[in-house]
Amino acid sequence: MLASRVFSLVGRRSISTSLCLRAHGHGVVKAEDYTLPVYVDRRDVPLPEVAFVRDLSAQQRALKEKEKASWSALSAEEKVELYRIKFNESYAEMKKGTNEWKTILGGILFFLGLTGVILIWQKNFMYGPVPHTFSDEWLSAQTKRMLDMRVNPVQGITAQWDFDKNEWKK
C-alpha cells in the first residue's frame, strides 16, 4: 500500500513537471527546452533520441507516408531526403575534419607571443640592472672567503678544496 502510494505520487509529480505548469497566477508556463530531449549528432551515439526535423512540412509528411510502403518504390533522392529528416549529418560528414585546429593553434601562438612581449617589456622597463653580487669578481671573492673560513668542511665546498696545492681536488 505504501509503495503504491509513493509510486503514484512520484508518477503524478513527473507528469506535472513535464506538462504545462501554473506559475503564481501569471498564466500557463510551458516546459523549458532543456527538459525535453534534444537532437545531437555524435559518433558514439548513433541514434539520437529525437529526429532532426521535428515539424514536418506537407511534402515531408507525404514522403513519410510513402516511406511506409515498399522502399524499392522510393528514388535515391527520396531516400536521402528521408535520411535528412531523421539525421543532420552522415558518419562521413561527422568524421570529416574541421579547420578548428587552425584557430586553436593561432590562439595559442598569439598568447605565447603576447607573453614574450610582456616579458621583454618587463626586462627592459620594470627590472633594474643586475646586482653587483652576480658579477664574476664578487662570486670569486665570496668563494675565496668561504674557503678561508672553512665553511662546511665535511661535505661542503671546503671538502672539495685542496688547501696544500691551493686548487680544487680532482
Describe the structure.
- There is one protein chain.
- With 170 residues, the chain is mainly alpha-helical.
- Helices cover 49% and strands 5% of the residues.
- It has 6 helices and 4 strands; from the N terminus they run αββαααααββ.
- It has helices spanning 2-18, 58-67, 76-86, 91-95, 100-126, 136-149, and strands at residues 21-22, 28-29, 161-162, 167-168.
- A two-stranded antiparallel sheet has the order 1-2. Strands 3-4 form a two-stranded antiparallel ribbon.
- A hairpin with a 4-residue loop joins strand 3 and strand 4.
- The longest helix is centred in the middle third of the chain and has 27 residues, at 100-126.
**Which range does the strand content fall in?**
under 5%
The largest β sheet comes out as: 2 strands, antiparallel
Shape: rod-shaped
The total count of strands amounts to 4
Provide key terms for this protein.
170 residues, two-stranded antiparallel ribbon, rod-shaped, 4 strands, 5% strand, two-stranded antiparallel sheet, 6 helices, mainly alpha
Kindly summarize this structure in a few lines.
This protein is mainly alpha-helical and 170 residues long. 49% of the residues lie in helices and 5% in strands. The longest helix has 27 residues, at 100-126.
Topology (SSEs and partners):
Layout: H1 2-18, E1 21-22, E2 28-29, H2 58-67, H3 76-86, H4 91-95, H5 100-126, H6 136-149, E3 161-162, E4 167-168
Antiparallel strand pairs: 1-2, 3-4
Helix pairs in contact: 2-3
